[in-house]
Amino acid sequence: MRNAHFGLAAVAALASLNIVSSTSPHNRDRPARARTDYIVLHTTEAPGPSSLQKLRRFGEAHYLVDTDGTVHRIISPNRVAFHAGRSMWRGVTNLDRFTIGIEVVGYHDRPITAAQIRSLRELLNTLKRSYRVTDDRVLTHSMVAYGAPNRWHRQSHRGRKRCGMIFADPRLRAQLGLRGQPAHDPDVRAGRLVVADPYLFDRLFTAPRQAQARATPTPVSAAPPPAGAREVEIRPGLTAWDVAREFYNHPSTVYRFPDGTERRGDQITNWTALRPGTRVVLGAAEAEPENPAEGLRILGRDGDTPIALAGDEARSGTTLYLLADGQVKGGNELSDAEFARLPAGTGVLVGYVNGGAITARRSAFDICGIRWRFPSTYYRFPDGTLVPGHQVRETAIPRNSLVFYQP
Ligand SMILES: [Zn+2]
Predict the structure, then answer these.
(1) 17 CA to middle of ligand 1, Å?
(2) pLDDT tens digits for range 97-155
(3) What does the domain layout of the chain look like in residue ranges?
């Protein structure tokens, strides 16, 4: 009975918590989770009111804990919220299917308020009891988020986000009533992922271990940009990737060069030529929905090659090429000649499965289960348009549409 309704004791605990119902309009169309393995903690990286508005609009968390300790319930705790995006833990991906997501108003490397600590502790106690989640299964978004190969990292990698990083601090965890935490990254250890953010890795795993051993913390490899900073200078050891993460090539990220000229992230053609002294101005990227279009990349945009877009997975079966003639081929199905001559404009999905066509007898749900309406799932309609899962209605998906999803 992992998903049993709150028992009486849990209800009593909740009574001392100020929970406000701020239900997302998406709540009713979210499926129930089959099970609950983890609780994932996030920091909003933005002020409370705008965060609440965005989380409700996209149904991106179960709860939001505001700075005054108020807890907003956005998605019913037994349903799916889209909070983890591209995620993996112990080899299991798409963790929205198995997790509860809590957003805490604040920043990944700044203390939260005493009121937030009190409320979050209560909320965690209740949820841990109701869903039987042990303390070492209360994770941070930065622990589970991972990136598909790209021009900065040729392999799938940890370090896509620093979200919720402070919740790996053993002192804060103790205040939240959490007595255990992951001692290492299981997917890095197993070789499924590489470390793309040594600073983050240190904060999540090495520093807590040392704190527990009462040793002094080691110096970290790369200092982070200041929390909430909107403008950060690139220097040796601090790349555009370090500063802007997955938004490095996004239109909302602006690069201000030493000579005073500026370019948007999507206008930069040569990333290796970015010089120290270039300032990175972060825009509204934090207000983006988690991961809606992260999967789709376009060949030839800014001279991008398959290797730049998919790294070591360019020739793998889980990199899908959406060819102009309507065919879809895995990287392993392309001949060397085809691979060499892939035209600009070809859509590329890295880390995806081609689920095949929807027919009268085979629904989107039959193909990929509850992922059928995940933002990371894509439908290619017979007319060639590509629509993400959170923008489709099942009855309006044309027959013979292809379904691509993250396994
Ligand atoms: Zn997050």
Answers:
(1) 23
(2) 999 999 999 999 899 999 999 999 999 999 999 999 999 999 999 999 999 888 788 89
(3) 8-212, 231-287, 296-405
Superfamily of domain 8-212: Peptidoglycan recognition protein-like (3.40.80.10)
Task: Give the dihedral of Cα atoms 64, 69, 70, 75; nearest 10 deg.
Answer: 20
Gap between the Cα atoms of 144 and 90, Å rounded:
9
Radius of gyration of the chain (CA): 21
Q: The tokens 């807590």 sit on which residue?
A: 208
Asked if 365 and 394 count as a contact pair (C-beta separation under 8 A), the reply is: yes
Q: How far is the CA of 333 from the centre of ligand 1 (A)?
A: 35
Among 83, 146, 189, which Cα is nearest to 313's? 146
Q: 45 alpha carbon to ligand 1 midpoint, in Å?
A: 9
Neighbours of ion ligand 1 (CB under 5 A): 42, 141, 163
Are residues 39 and 82 in contact, defined by beta-carbon separation less than 8 angstroms?
Answer: no
- Rounded Cα gap, residues 35 and 397, in angstroms: 28
> Which of 56, 63, 51 is CA-nearest to residue 19?
63
Q: Which of 42, 170, 159 is nearest to 107 (CA)?
A: 42
pLDDT tens-digit readout, 4-24: 444 455 554 555 788 999 999
Ligand 1 center to 355 CA (angstroms): 28
Torsion angles phi and psi, residue 350, rounded to 5: -100, 125
- Non-local CB neighbours of 219 within 8 Å, separated by 6+ positions: none
Element (H, E) at 135: none
Residue 44 φ then ψ, to 5°: -75, -25
Q: Is the pTM of this model over 0.85?
A: no
